[in-house]
Amino acid sequence: MTAIDNTCPTDATTAGVSSAEASKEKLEWRSM
Amino acid sequence: MSRLLCLLLPVAHAALLGPPPASKHPQLEALQRTALSTVLGLSLAVSPGLVAPSAALADAEFATKGAEEFSSTAGFEEFAADGGKMQVDPNCFFKECGPQTKACFSNPACLKGITCLGNCRGEQLCATQCFARFGSEKLNDWLGCTLEDKECVTTGVKQDNSAYYESAPPAIKDFTPADLEGEWYKVLGYNPKYDTYPCQINTFTKLPNGGLSNDILFRVPKPDGGGAWVNNFVETMANSRGPQNKASMTVEGKMFGLTFHEQWYILGKGEGYRVVAYKGDTQQGPYEGAFVYTKTKTALTDAGGAALRSQIDAVVTLILTLTLTRILTLALTLTLTLALTLTRSSRARGSSPRR
What range defines the domain where residue B109 resides? Predict the structure, then answer.
């Protein structure tokens, strides 16, 4: 068994696309 | 998170794909095809209580390099590693999963998610990072439809996991769901693919049907070393011993659009700790792992931590001994069976008329 890192620094963000990204439906060159 | 589901898709080169959704913008159509041409491998990660392109491409490559040490898992990944050829029906994406494909392919974030996953080529941490960065309902819907519901990509071989659960680890007899209620920190993990993500907190709440709701938090490190993504899932656990009557509890649900089944085996419990093993499967193959919960995240390093670790190690050692004994018994049985067969065969040849 390996020890799990539970230091948990505060520089964390929520997983998943942001609501702004999720709602963007227009595909553009810069999107790639 | 205790689980990550893994699968690998074969090359889905743009030229092989069927007609893309009608577009008034040829350049965007070209973009979509370019993105798809990078889908050389697609890996899905799922985990409980289981990490950007201009960025999808660059990050996927970065993440892959950082996790090469991970061992392989059964299912699509091994199938691909062994050189197995998967069957892909690109037209299926559009014919059978038209709404999901259109919704995903017209959404930049979803398309980036597919591209990111494709560049992971089946590597688990990389795929988990893609989901953490680009995960969305649109992506889940596309994966669920194309991989599971309509099977646009298959190995051509149906997975049979029935025997997999027969060789279950020995769960303690006096377990009750109440033993897991409350907040627990994972402090030790067995399988580096699924069990050792940082900052895993599982909070179990009693359900009216005797089961438990498991609110799962875990972090996925960002590939550039700049922080982490916090993932949150909720699973429903049933107070059931499973079809083989060997489990402590069972879990069934969907993660990243794919169905999973899981059996948990509580191997040991004591003041402030629980030792848990699990086996699970998806349409893409089986997986397994183990971990240790404690009531505080520093339980093993605080005063008294060494004594607690000794208790936990004693449980793990006992399980390993029992498992080794089972393997040796099985090997002995096979050897005796083989010897008996050879003896009978020899006798049969000896009684045959000689020329």
Answer: 2-154
Give the span between the Cα atoms of B145 and B257, in whole angstroms: 8
Decide which of B84 and B5 is more confident. Answer: B84
B11, A12 contact by CB (below 8 A): no
Select the residue of A11, A15, A31 nearest B108 (Cβ to Cβ). A31
Q: Are residues B150 and B180 in the same domain?
A: no
Distance from CA of B259 to the nearest CA of A (A): 19
Look at residue B354 and tell me if it is in a domain: no
Residues of chain A with Cβ-Cβ distance to B134 below 8 Å are: 16-17
CA distance B68 to B84: 20
pTM exceeds 0.80? no
Please report the number of interchain residue pairs, chain A to chain B, with beta-carbon separation below 8 angstroms. 112
Q: What is the ipTM of this complex?
A: 0.83
Give the chain A residue whose CA is nearest to the CA of B193.
Answer: A2
Q: How far is CA B118 from CA B67, B122, B275, B293, in A?
A: 16, 8, 35, 34
